Amino acid sequence: MAEKLVVARPRPAAVRWLRRYGLATLGGAIIVAWIVMAVLAPWVMTYNPNFVNVANRLQPPSAVHWLGTDALGRDVMTRIVYGARISLSVGMVVVLVGGLFGTLLGAVAAYARGWAEEALMRVTDLVFCFPPIILAMAIAAALGIGTVNTVIAMLVVWWPKFARLARSLVISQRSLEYVEAAQSIGFGPVHILMRQIIPNAVGPLIVLVTLDLGQAILVFAGLSFLGLGVVPPTAEWGAMVAEGRELVQQWWVATFPGLAILTVVMGFNFVGDGIRDTGCTLKAMRRECARALVPFKGVHRFIPALVKNAGYRLVEIPVNHRARQFGVSKYGLGNRAIKATMDMFGVRWLQSRGVAYQLRDENA
User: Fold this and answer.
1) Of 27, 107, 38, which is closest to residue 270 (Cα–Cα)?
2) CA distance 218 to 214
3) CB of 130 closer than 8 Å to CB of 190
């Protein structure tokens, strides 16, 4: 009896795409949605986030107040959206400024070597001796309540992790051949460090920045929950959770701000995990981003008609020296119709798979 040969069917392209980019795309969509709501809050929200209306205090979610009201009658949804402006801004400032300072400090320490490296790394280890949240609480309590003071307290404890990572990356890069070639050419240490080493080691730092954004927002909310963050009655997620921690029956006062923190932190974690899975190099990140955007190029079916109606025709010509001289990129976008549309907006020469495209007037 002959045995049957069973061949496994390959998974559909949509399933493969979802397994590879689904969570990262979901995280990016969540972050973009929160940023858009935070930017458009003054024009979208109908209530004042600090307007007190005691007559409507502790109202449950309804058609008038979608997420209910708090103990002072303020609309919870409005305060959540306005709180996103502070939470997202503080998280980005802390991570970007702390990351920049820590990266430069760690890179200089690794490239300088000797006593400078030892001194800078011992300062880093000294800050690492304290739990970040405890040290931030102590500094914030000493400086006083306020958003600026809280940001300063977080910056003091946020840079060491970037300094350590940057130092290890620069140590692994400084002995490679391209660094020796740059030194033999005559480039100075500042040029080699800033233009050669750091750009080649920035991939893991980008991953850490993405993952740390959610952590910074969570720490800021924790400090505000303890009364060391924003000044009342400023709308902020951690402070809103603190206001509703004892209102068990009025669950919406603390639940919805907590869900806002949860979604933002999950969004940044999903994006960070997706970037980390690309291989932590800029080239790999660009390649994976291009692959992730492939399903969203279906609109190209309608573009040739637009090109024809505009009185143009698409002409293929071989890529040659003259074409490159007119600005043909060596990285093609892979879609003729999209290139034609870009040409309609002023880009006259583009390339895809060894072929350059030029728009010519039909009447010419």
Assistant:
1) 27
2) 6
3) no
- Other CB atoms within a 10 A radius of the CB of residue 277 amount to 15
Distance CA 122, CA 106 (A): 11
Predicted structure pTM score: 0.73
pLDDT tens across 213-239, in order? Answer: 999 999 999 999 988 888 888 889 999
Domains contained in the chain, CATH given: 38-288 (1.10.3720.10), 301-361 (no CATH)
Q: Give the separation between CA 84 and CA 41, rounded to whole angstroms.
A: 9
pLDDT digits (tens, 9 = 90+) for 284-317: 555 555 555 555 444 344 444 444 444 444 444 4
Helix (H) or strand (E) holding 17: helix 13-39
CA distance 270 to 273: 5
Sign of CA dihedral 127, 128, 129, 131: positive
